[in-house]
Amino acid sequence: MKMKQIAKNLAVAATFAAGPALAADDEVVIGMSAALSGGAAGTYAAPAEGLKLYIDRLNDAGGVNGRTVSLVIYDDQGDASRAASNAKRFLTQDDVQMIISVSTSATFAPIISQATRREVPVLFAGSVCPAETMPPAKPLLYCSTGFSAVHDSIAMVDYLRERESGDITIGFSAMGIPISRAGMEEAERMVLEAGMKSAGVEIAPPGTADYTSFATKLTQNEAEAVLSWAPWSVQIRFVDALRKQGWEGNAYVGHLAEAELEMLKIKDPGLIAVGSNVMLFENSEATRTLVDAVTEAGSSLNPEAILDGWVGGIVVEGVLEELGEDTSAEAINAVMSNIEIDTKGLRGGPIKWTDNNHFRETIYYRAYRWSDEKGAMEIARDWKAYEVE
């Protein structure tokens, strides 16, 4: 489905939920601020739709413990001022008991500021996980999103060390945004500590159209393998620019929402995606449930693109299952601060939050690649657990 259509569908849903949504005894009111239109919609509209789809199915099945979810959706276009306005409406008009963010990092500060002042928990579900959710976590802020630049980089470097020779020279590619730069700078540090060499960190400014010059620097510095963590379009353009110069090394990239469909098209055995979400080619019970839900909803969404939002819906359900009679924001936050949520086969293990850690206690990574021998995608390395400290 085109992103404009996703945004239109969600805008309709938001219209129906635009009035005050004061909670009845048998419902919980949750506000979702998402980049449904604008430049960031290509990344965030689909996870937002995935979360809404999960909540719709949950309500159709009778909710949880007799309670349904009233999901109030507003478009913030990835803009801080719009997010601030949305947060104010959630808290002063809609009386929400939780806020969910599926948007850019630019929207975090105004949402966090207003939500913490009102002591309402915030779940980042499809958005980058803010540093405040990592140990030592700040109260009220939680994250279920699968990707994390630094943790993904740790897993990529670990897998690279298993596959490549000891004194290999590694190149790094990033986009000129803080999270991408930080992930690759951390990866470079780990590579150097492991006794490997660096061909440098090439950072492309947002809006770069031609990556040739960046790829040329990496090849001139004799990069034998490359690591990348950035929006998918940036990662894949770096790799494409390298291949056009005849470079034949392995490229290790972050497994983001677009990865599976793109890798099926490219069919490059040297392109290895490392991430914490499953790929749908596995055709497991968990992936079939997700695909069937999209089909039954009559949606033309790519199921791969909604997975982080779907997991966010699983988190909401898990929290509601643990609630007693009190459904206040305070009670919801108490549950969220000490809970373990089964990710139902869509990740390598549960999401576990504690008072000190609102990201997850353990994160699990798989590596995927295209196999010419099989003519299909394959699991290059199965789940490996990494403790989050």
CATH class bucket of the largest domain: Alpha Beta
Task: Tell me the fraction of residues in β-strands, as a range.
Answer: 15-25%
What is the percent of helical residues?
A: 40-55%
Rounded to an integer, what's the Rg over CA atoms? 21 Å
Sheet with most strands? 7 strands, mixed
- Say which CATH homologous superfamily of the largest domain is assigned: Response regulator
Q: What's the total helix number?
A: 12
Architecture per CATH nomenclature, i.e. the level-2 architecture of the largest domain: 3-Layer(aba) Sandwich
Give, in spatial order, the strands making up the sheet with the most strands.
7-6-8-9-10-13-14
Q: What integer is the average pLDDT?
A: 92
**How many beta-strand runs?**
14
Quaternary arrangement of the chains shown? single chain
Task: Please give the domain count.
Answer: 2
Secondary structure category: alpha/beta
Distance between the termini: 39 Å
Shape annotation: globular
Instruction: Give the SSE order as H and E letters.
Output: HEHEHEHEEHEHEHEHEHEHHHEEEE
Low-confidence stretches: 1-8, 11-22
CATH third-tier fold name of the largest domain = Rossmann fold
Précis, in short:
By secondary structure, this protein is of the alpha/beta class.
What attributes does this structure have?
single chain; 389 residues; alpha/beta; Rossmann fold; 2 domains; 7-stranded mixed β-sheet; 5-stranded parallel β-sheet; 12 helices; disordered N terminus
